[in-house]
TrEMBL record:
Pfam families: Ribosomal_L22. The lineage of its organism: Bacteria, Pseudomonadati, Bacteroidota, Cytophagia, Cytophagales. GO terms for biological process: translation. HAMAP family: Ribosomal_uL22_B. GO terms for molecular function: rRNA binding; structural constituent of ribosome. Signal peptide: none annotated. Gene3D superfamilies: Ribosomal protein L22/L17 (3.90.470.10). This is Large ribosomal subunit protein uL22. Keywords: Ribonucleoprotein, Ribosomal protein, RNA-binding, rRNA-binding. Part of the 50S ribosomal subunit. Belongs to the universal ribosomal protein uL22 family. InterPro entries: Ribosomal_uL22, Ribosomal_uL22_bac/chlpt-type, Ribosomal_uL22_bac/org-type, Ribosomal_uL22_sf. The globular domain of the protein is located near the polypeptide exit tunnel on the outside of the subunit, while an extended beta-hairpin is found that lines the wall of the exit tunnel in the center of the 70S ribosome. This protein binds specifically to 23S rRNA; its binding is stimulated by other ribosomal proteins, e.g., L4, L17, and L20. It is important during the early stages of 50S assembly. It makes multiple contacts with different domains of the 23S rRNA in the assembled 50S subunit and ribosome. It comes from Roseivirga echinicomitans.
Amino acid sequence: MEAVAKLNNVPTSARKMRMVADLIRGQRVDRALNLLKFEPKEGAARLEKLLRSAVSNWIAKNEDERLEDADLMIKEIRVDGGRILKRLRPAPQGRAHRIRKRSNHVTLIVDSKKASTKVTAGKEEEVTNETAN
């Protein structure tokens, strides 16, 4: 069973956050946490906290399973653009330049590796049965 964690209105541009998210996409949770811990980029600390939240959400959903046996991995991580705060900065000769302060929304889905292999095995069996007929 998968668990979801969301982080809204992060005051960083989506492009900068995607660079960090691409590092951990599809990784196992323990490896992703190690990568984020030593990554110097600003978004790494926020993504590490979000990943820990997703793991704790998974634990709350699956109380009967042990975390060590689950072999959790990052199933999906999505970084979308958020709202843009528009500000004005003085410019020469009485003009003004527009400053856009961007933000983003991050959605992180964590799932057990065992659960995802069972689902794909079921789909493969369905496909082979259809081709046999």
